[in-house]
Amino acid sequence: MDEDNKTNEYLFECMRNHEWDKLKETINSYENINLNKKDGNNYNLILYAIKYNKLDIVKLLLEKKCNIDVVDFYNRSLLYEAIISDYYDIIEAIINYAVENIGLSIIDIKDNAGQIPLHYAIKNNKIEIIKLLLKNKSNVNIHNNDGYNSLHLAIRKKNLEVCKMIIDNGIYINTKTLNTGDTALHLSLNLQTNEITKLLLENKANPKIQDDGNEYTPLHYAVAWNNYDMINLLLDYGADPNIQDNMGNTPLMWCVKQDEKESCKKLIQNKKIEINCNITDIYGDLPLHIIFENYDSSKSYYLETLIENTNVNIIDKYNNSILHYLCINELWKKYENILAKKKLNIFVFNDANKTPYDYVSKDDKEHFMNLLVSAYIHVLQTNDKKWIDEDDIKCVDKKNTKYCMSEIKKKILNNLELFKIKQTNICVKSYPRDIKKCITLDEGENIEFCTFTGTLFDILIGIIFLMKKHKNVCSIINNKNEIINERMCDFYKERGMVINDNCEFISFEIVWKDNKLIMIENFVLLFEKALTNNKRFIIIPIGIEIKNGSHSNYLLFDKNNYEIERFEPHGKNISSNFDYKAEYLDELLEKYFKNIDSKIIYISPDKYLPKISFQILDSVENNSIKIGDPKGFCAIWAIWYIDNRLTFEDITREKLIKILLSNIKNQRLSYKNIIRNYSKNIIDYRDKFLKQININMNDFMNNKYTNQQINKLLYLLNNEIVKSHN
């Protein structure tokens, strides 16, 4: 063993035997001694000095310039032992030495678990050490491998004092845990730390934010725990009781399912944001539907509180409306005064093939019919609408009420008989209507296998199909672009989505990739050109790149209203598992179009779509799946919606969405069958073009065509586009 090794071994022996004076004397006796060597336990001298709480030796080793960026077997910095053992002076000495002598910060060194010294101090409730680390600028926003930052850890320890310190030192208060997507507010409410919850809200924690897993808001948690004080506090700070989780449940639905009347009272009595009683969950149930599934008199509070603001005609998963349930449970008389001021529809069959009227006793049928007539007339006389039926127009005048009671009763009874033998359409109701056009839907011609691919070619065919069908729409398609966006061309080539190497026919789609808009170079010129023709609408698809593939949306510009709306087939917002930063996309799209013309009004999906919309309702249908169905019918749903929007152009988008969803439900249609069968329109139209060049879609997908064939296809497509634009 050489002299240096002998000296080091002697130093370790002195350290282990606690022979401190000999240790210090030896260290001071040698100028070039290596103080950084490790023993068989992977410890060096300074780690032992810390372990044994020998401040003087730590200072001596620091004075002799020993390394301080050393770590143990778990990559924990030398501060770890001092923090666990509460050796404040040693920690302070090491930090001061690092800052003053070498400018090296060891405060935020991460170990194998992603923990930094501040995390150790928080987990072990070392208050004074936490203060010291924060004073020396430890980064409170660093996450460990479990996804928690310093505030999350402090909340898990239920330590209000530490939470205050961390908030005062620059924490991003709404940051989510990396693994579960909970915010500090979610954690605090779930752990029932009321004072911490109050502190967070006082420091601008967002009471409306949803977690990434189940899309719960803090209010969902407060309701789940029946924490009345926190429900009130969250509502005072602007929590929205109408936000739905990933299953469509609002906090009100949660407390109804749990039969927690007090929690419900807090939500209902809230004055800041009115409860929406007509939100349905993923199964189509309202809060009152949930109540009626196991109704008894103990639940009358919910009925008395919610019925006034509930649409009693909405049907649930059993095709029962609230009016059905009121009649089944013989409760309609109890709430007659409320019902007399509502739209009441008895023309709906439940799964037992019965209408609400069928559940009314024989002795009460006359009474019930008079209620229907009174409600009908009340709607006529209290709504400032342009009614379409002649009798309805006449009955607006209260002088004609007596005559109207008789005539409307006859009309309802006559329509009821026709309805029972299925001689009326979906639009015949037992209340007045102000829509001239009746929107009836069907599942279309049945197909066993869907060959719609969602490629750029199919999207293009879908646009041409819409322009051919509707004379009120154009697009920005133009295959003779003066400038080709090389970035966009490369993007499509990478995915095999161009028709040929020249990137023709790519100037009709906006691409959203990596939180950036990829626009056609001359998009503004093409859009402004489309503005000058006599077509009311302009359609522009959006191709959205996500982690697991691609997604499709559509933009529809209405020249009459100067509005451009984005249609998202999932609904008003996207689940975290499918997140493509929709809010940011809307922000950039709105800015882009307002730069073209500041008068353009941008309408994002959350302004008119429900949380649970067409594609989600399609995806949860497990009894209609067929071989060949894609993972999602997003592109087809977008085309289908635009088709309906153009067909019923004078109905507002909000009303149209409600009618389409309601009619699919009321007609007991399958979302999956509707959209799969609708795709046949695009498939047949596409295959007609391919047939003219003697190939099929399999040939096209596998590049089994000649240049002559593809050039002919481009020629045919161009001719169709020109015809559609004229």
UniProtKB/TrEMBL annotation:
Record-linked Gene3D superfamilies: Ankyrin repeat-containing domain
Lineage: unclassified sequences, metagenomes, organismal metagenomes
Organism: viral metagenome
SMART domains with a match to the protein in the record: ANK
Keywords attached to this entry: ANK repeat, Repeat
Protein name: Uncharacterized protein
Segments traversing the membrane: none
Coiled coil regions, renumbered to chain: none
PANTHER family: ANKYRIN REPEAT AND PROTEIN KINASE DOMAIN-CONTAINING PROTEIN, ANKYRIN REPEAT-CONTAINING PROTEIN-RELATED
